Each structure stands twice: as C-alpha cells, then as structure tokens.
C-alpha cells in the first residue's frame, strides 16, 4: 500500500517542523524515494539555517538507505562545509566517521 502526504509550501514556511514530521513519516514507511525528493526541496525552499542542514542530512540518510553511498557522502560533506555550526553537522560528521571505519 502506498501512502501520499500533502504538505503545502505555506506550512513548510510557517511551521517547518510540521513539514519535517510529514516527510519523516514517508521515510519511516520505507518510501525513501519520496522522502528524498521532499528533503531536497527543503534546501531550495530555505536559503540557509538549521532547516537546510537537517534537510540535507535526512536526504543523505535516504540515499544511504537506497544504497547510494557516494551521493550520501557528498551531502554529508555539504552539511559540514556549509552548515558547520548546525546540529546536523555533528550527525553528518559521525556518519562520515562511521562510514570511513568500514
């Protein structure tokens, strides 16, 4: 069974946490392709800030779940390079360290 979620851009702009929660439901349901697309939209919807860093981090996780480790690594590095003071940067750093230990 496939589930679709509709979250308007207005909700994303006014209450980003609601948009993230909806996208995380897609991810939790195993629809990494749809979640990935939505997380990547966050990077274009917001100019900067924690929302962009979190969106990129979660997109990287979706890519890893799909087996695209190279693209995931690229996004983790982007989080570190462009959003080094964000909470997502610490998680991206941890993920890169764990991947390099393999």
DSSP helix fraction: over 70%
Strand content: under 5%
Instruction: Give me the count of strands.
Output: 0
Rg on CA atoms, Å: 13 Å
Question: Could you give the order of the helices and strands?
Answer: HHHHHH
Shape: globular
Provide mean pLDDT, rounded. Answer: 81
Largest sheet: none
| Structural class by SSE content | mainly alpha
What count of helical segments does DSSP give?
Answer: 6
CATH architecture: Alpha Horseshoe
Whole-number count of domains: 1
Q: In the CATH hierarchy, what is the superfamily?
A: Tetratricopeptide repeat domain
Summarize the SSE layout with pairings.
Blueprint: H1 9-14, H2 16-28, H3 32-45, H4 50-66, H5 69-82, H6 87-100
Helix pairs in contact: 2-3, 3-4, 4-5, 4-6, 5-6
Can you walk through the features of this model?
The protein is mainly alpha-helical and 102 residues long. It has a single domain (9-100), classed as Alpha Horseshoe (Serine Threonine Protein Phosphatase 5, Tetratricopeptide repeat), CATH 1.25.40.10. Helix content is 76%, strand content 0%. It is built from six helices and no strands. It has helices spanning 9-14, 16-28, 32-45, 50-66, 69-82, 87-100. Helix 4 runs antiparallel to helix 5 and helix 4 (50-66) packs parallel to helix 6 (87-100). It is globular, with a radius of gyration of 13 Å. The protein starts with 8 loop residues before the first helix and ends with a helix. The model has no long low-confidence stretch (mean pLDDT 81).
């Amino acid at each position: 069974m496939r589930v679709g979620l509709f979250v308007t851009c207005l909700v994303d702009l006014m209450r980003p946490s609601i948009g993230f929660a909806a996208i995380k439901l897609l991810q939790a349901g195993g629809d990494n392709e749809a979640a990935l697309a939505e997380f990547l939209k966050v990077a274009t919807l917001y100019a900067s800030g924690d929302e962009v860093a979190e969106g990129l981090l979660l997109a990287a996780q979706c890519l890893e779940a799909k087996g695209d480790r190279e693209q995931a690594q690229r996004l983790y590095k982007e989080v570190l390079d462009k959003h080094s003071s964000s909470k997502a940067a610490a998680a991206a750093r941890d993920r890169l360290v764990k991947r390099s230990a393999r």
